[in-house]
Amino acid sequence: MAFNVNELVLDKVRSLTAHDLASGEMLFRLTSLEDPSLSCTAEGEEIVDAIGAVITTLYRAKKATFSASNSLISLDLAARQYGAEKEVGSATSMIEVPTYDVLTVSGGKVTPKKIPTSTEVEIEGVKTKVYDIGYIYTLENNEIGTSYAHDTTDTAATAEKFIVKEVKDDKQTVTGVEITVPTTVKDGTKIYVDYKYKTENANRIANKTSQFPESCGMKIYAYFRDKCNDNTVYSGIIISPKAKLNPEQVELALTSTGKHAFEFTMMRDYCDEDAELFSIIVAE
Fold this sequence. Notes:
Layout: E1 8-19, E2 26-30, E3 33-48, E4 54-70, H1 75-81, E5 87-88, E6 95-104, E7 109-110, E8 118-123, E9 126-131, E10 135-140, E11 143-150, E12 161-168, E13 174-180, E14 190-199, E15 203-204, E16 216-226, E17 233-245, E18 260-266, E19 279-283
Parallel strand pairs: 11-12
Antiparallel strand pairs: 1-2, 1-16, 3-4, 4-18, 5-15, 6-14, 7-13, 8-9, 10-11, 10-14, 12-13, 16-17, 17-18, 17-19
């Protein structure tokens, strides 16, 4: 007996995958989709007679969109919405990360939790490594108080400037840095230290004004249930050979309960006159 189904109960949309148009390689996958919606439109032109009576309506230029919200913020999706590639840190390609520490002065010193980035500069004809900590700040009632500048030319802190020295182990490997605070700053004072460090354990997305989403292939996987026997489950898939993320409005709700909304515009292959906008397959 032929498998022929009609009315079905949508159980859930399982996942969405996007693929490179040329190679078919998966670009990203979303698994927590909410409020999915598939919308189709077409342009209609009324054909009228001499007195304006409608003879028929001709339709053309079909369009389709798929929109949803991912329950979780997706870095892969955000990168594609911005037309960017997600940078993944490695031992040979570290990512620079801004951070800050709130530290308590002890013995006139504080120690940042990470090793700050550094720049090689020439001081009095000698090339010297200078750690990129421009300023430190006292905290007074949890508010930024007095700022102090980094003295890169001296070996001792002054009343108004601080110095940074390397901390090394027995093998002379740099394990950290130590800040000697200005002599006017007392032990027990809270210090706010703003700096950058490099790590392989980071990801980065850059939203550039000159970059926009590229076309890709898209597949939407779903589960259906039989309307008469809900124990019978069918697999469904919506396939769009060519689609593009809509960058007109990309909003990331920066809250713990925020969702990540997106919209795909489906397009036919312009060079294929009989190309599909999308297809729907339901199978046992």
